[in-house]
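Final paragraph of the annual report: two paired records, presented back to back.
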Amino acid sequence: MKICIFTHTFPRFTGDNAAPFMGNLAKALGQLGNKVYVLVPFDQKIDFKSENHYTIITYKYIFPSSFHILGYSRTFKQNRQLTLITYLIAPLMYLFGFAALLRLVKKTGIEVVSAHWMIPSGFIARVVKAISNISYVVTIPGADVYVGSKNRFFKEMVGIASMGADYVISDNEHYINQLNALGFKPKNVGIIRYGVDTKVFIPGKKNSDLLKRLNLYPSDQIILAVGRMELKKGFIYLVRAFDAIIKVNPKTKLVFVGDGYERHMLVREAKNLKLNGKVIFVGAIPYDKLIDYYNIADVFVMPSIQDKEGNTDASPVAMMEAMACGVRVVATRFSGSKEFLNGRTGILVKEKSDREIARATISLLSTKETRAKIQKEVRKMAQKNFSLQIVAKKYVDIFKLC
């Protein structure tokens, strides 16, 4: 099957943190024997290595090259607001993205376009469909539908993209509910999480060199959080919960991996609670180094919330990567599900509740079971729900219905 993955973000180089799950999906689809093309906008940092499972094609939308500043997790200010420069350049990205997709469809005989994000990819795919009659499936990873609720023009684009699609996929039911709340109810809808490479993210021993760099001891119990530091992640509630956790587990440390506009607030909150030395802010790290951090963790916490503007962080890939490494999870209803957090593999808590986060984390840390047994059980759940092979097959099954 000839498939085009059409997206505005994709890992540009080894270790890039720009939507690594997109690279994983492209690879998994190619491993199933499909001919996969990935169409993405040009970026100066692009240094694609040879990849046997898919072909990458870029398009330019402005001159000079240094003006290519959209996509790759940079379009939104604080992941919520569009900047003035975005409004000025975006029309060019839409125009040249449309031309590039139409040209690729006609040249290669693409059978289905897998567009990721309603805006811009889903909308552009709909316009191409009107001309070429190509089938397309659009996937909602998050903020695109949220943006549609804040702007009438974007709302219309979301409606055109979703109602014209052969299938609408989301990695979380919450985003489908957001779409329905805008008044758009596509006939064909499916829930497929992006998944993780369970052959890369595997359980392992705690890296002693990493522990030393972080000033941690082998006897420390480590709570890990990974992600961009923004409101919808709910990390502030984890910091507050940690103040209660260390009163019960004095040898516990909290490690944050990631950066963002909320970091200063988290650092200040930790200082106000006199948690200095017990809360460690690592900052952003290359994607391929994450596994070492997952494997020093005893519990992974993903306290996602719906912020005051209605934006959410549903189905974060980091949580699934942690589980693939055998780490139990504490998560809110936005990031987790009873489907795979059953009390043993992890615990669901209310959003914005530092008390519940603390209680659940203490419960998981107090287990008497061996680390090896825990890792085996959690990883088994991850393989069943998040492995790339299962995810890719679900996508192909939907593509065949188009």
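The closing record of the year follows.
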Amino acid sequence: MTTNPKRGFASDNNAGIHPLLLEAIGKANSGHEIAYGDDPYTAAAIKTIKKLFGDKTSEVFFVLTGTGANVLSLSSVARSYNAVICADTAHIHTDECGAPEKFTGCKLISISTPDGKLTPDAIRPHLQGFGFEHHVQIRVISISQPTEMGTVYTAQEIKALSDLAKEYNLYLHMDGARLANAAVHLNMGFREITADAGVDLLSFGGTKNGMLFGESVLFFQPGISDDFKYLRKQSMQLASKMRFISAQFESYLSNKVWYINAQHANKMAQLLLKKVSVLPKVKITQKVEANAVFAIIPHEVIEPLQKKFFFYVWDENRDEVRWMTSFDTTPEDIDGFAEHLALLLS
């Protein structure tokens, strides 16, 4: 079997496992523990999560995948006659193969945004038809932090959305697959940009930031998670050997792996921005606030550049590409990428 030693810029999912997290899995691989989460590793991880996210954290559940976390979060508070408002670039809308609509039965109402960020003004025109049986009933506002465009909501922006949700008796869900990157950018803790900002339920991930597998769902409002354990099992997201997810989260959070990894990935994105923004015919299309760089480049250089450093085309119609950095991206990776791009553009 051959391996590809070259690190590309397609996704932070492509990176390996951080050594401390791999070590945590190894330490958990000793003896027998009760399956399905009734083990000391899971208890310790939940305790650590509640400490970081604050007293409003009513329940914590571990699941297998990010899509599973999002779908189950929405399923816990919405019924088939409900609707979920999201940005048109949201992961639940563009990258989950219709799973949220299939498994919740809900309608997704997507709103066009220039930067992936929802605002109260953009949402308000859609908040109508409440109590009218012929209209789908809006129940959830779902945001991604950071957004799929690499932009980051401030705590104040999240609070404004939470206030709007409460005004209309809605829930605010956050897809936090890359929450660590947002926290580092804002120089804030997890609590300040989730529970304290009025988020009701959170999909909190670590796979994109050095974990092997496993995500979590956090509830910040008592009562809304009462049926979650049944939904998780029915949705095939209950891991029997849950200790191997929990052990990772415990190490990820207790050893500040989340911070170290996200800080490095964000720093590498800034370096990449610096290197490519000065090149001719490269147009940066979004603010670089996390670990993603979006740019429009000439169509003819995309394929040869991908052959050496793989990445994804974000918008084929205008040759917009996405370059993602990871916890293991090096300055040398970026230098090589920028030099090859410059050569192709010359």
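The first helix runs from residue 19 to 28. This concludes the annual technical report; the extension proposal builds directly on these records.
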